[in-house]
Write a structure and sequence with these properties.
- The complex is a heterodimer of chains A (302) and B (99).
- Chain A has helices at residues 23-26, 50-63, 83-93, 106-122, 139-143, 145-149, 162-168, 181-193, 209-222, 235-242, 246-264, 282-294, and strands at 14-19, 36-40, 70-74, 97-100, 131-136, 155-160, 197-200, 226-229, 270-272, 275-277.
- Chain A is globular.
- In chain A, 43% of the residues lie in helices and 15% in strands.
- Chain A starts with 13 loop residues before the first strand and ends in an 8-residue tail after the last helix.
- The longest helix of chain A is centred in the last third of the chain and has 19 residues, at 246-264.
- An eight-stranded parallel β-barrel of chain A has the order 1-2-3-4-5-6-7-8, surrounded by five helices.
- Chain B has two helices and four strands.
- Chain B has helices at 37-54, 71-86, and strands at residues 7-9, 17-23, 28-34, 60-66.
- A four-stranded mixed sheet of chain B has the order 1-2-4-3, covered by helices on one side.
- Classes of the chains: A alpha/beta (302), B alpha+beta (99).
- Chains A and B meet through helix 2 and helix 3 of A and helix 2 of B.
Chain lengths: 302, 99
Amino acid sequence: MVCTNPNLHRLRRSMMFLNAQKPSLIKDPYIYKPDSIMLDLEDAVAENQKDAARYSLYQALKTVDYHGCERVVRINGLETTHWQEDIRVCVAGGADSIRISKTESAEDVKRVEAAIIAAEKEFHKENAQTLIMAAIESTKGIMHVYDICNASDRLFGVALSGGDYTKDLQTVISKSGVELMGARQQMVIAARATGKMCFDTVYTDLDDMEGFVESVKMIKAMGFDGKSIINPRQILPTHQVFTPTEKEIRYAEQVVTEIDTKKAQGIGVFTINGKMLDIAFYDGAKRTLALAKAAGVYKGDL
Amino acid sequence: MELKKAAMAGTVESSDAQITVEPGTKGIELVIESSVIHQYGRQIKAVVLDTLKKLQVANAKVTVVDKGALDCTLKARVEGAVFRSINNDPDTPNPWEVL
């Protein structure tokens, strides 16, 4: 079934993790302006508080105005007894998206999709088209990431969960990130090959802002769409990396205009400021402008 | 709904409330403890009673230790305590449409 939810490809530069069981965290996180918040029913919630977290989540979804922040909920893994009721509360409460933990196969995505559709019927929200994202947390998940991306039209993207993944790989997370290279590369290629988005894991050293910014720049250069965030302090630097600069916007405008004009004149390849340009640069420039527009820093009409 | 056993939900952290319910026989017997009782005591009482009414709980001893919780948190904690009192399995499907 084709997903017509207009938010399928919305701007998602930052996604901030919040414990759904903690009232102090979920009442006003939109003031920090992350693109998405991720209300957690999984690891942040103690095993004996899974039920209480759902009521807290439900009332927050029903009453708190998140000012346009996307509300993603991370549900418990499919190996637990909790995930089906987690999906019911997400759909009943009107969550925008559901994040599947520990996704290892296309089958996992299909099971969640079926449960979402059943809940949408039960609560008369057939038109909600609750979106899905899949967290990849194991080597097996990485081996199946292309199939996972293709498993559902509601799936907007995949996110790396570095902690669990490196445990499975039998190593630890380092500053250089060398241990995550293969996973990141495989994920972003699979995501692009299937028209999905790709999000990086969290950076846990809150005192090392320089290292954080470096890691965000790297994943942006690799092609990622956004970063998982654990503290409001990490939001602004992330947005700065992912938002096109004034110079990039002007250049992209020039590229689009020039290619349009030259095409009309029957010219295929030419130069701007001494740099060779042809149609291959067109989509990239268009994407820069779309990103700038979505981020509110470009008001032109290209 | 008939309460089956004493149950509690919530914490005493800031912005939260800890709510305890016990089966009762004389209607709703409510005790509220809050640092903002003078400004918000009536509001807290109204939200708790309203939530119990929605859940059709007619007889209960209810204790609220409020730490500056918003209405949505109070509701969630009352629901948490009541369903813990009734259900043995925390993953029992909830009637979300009426909560």
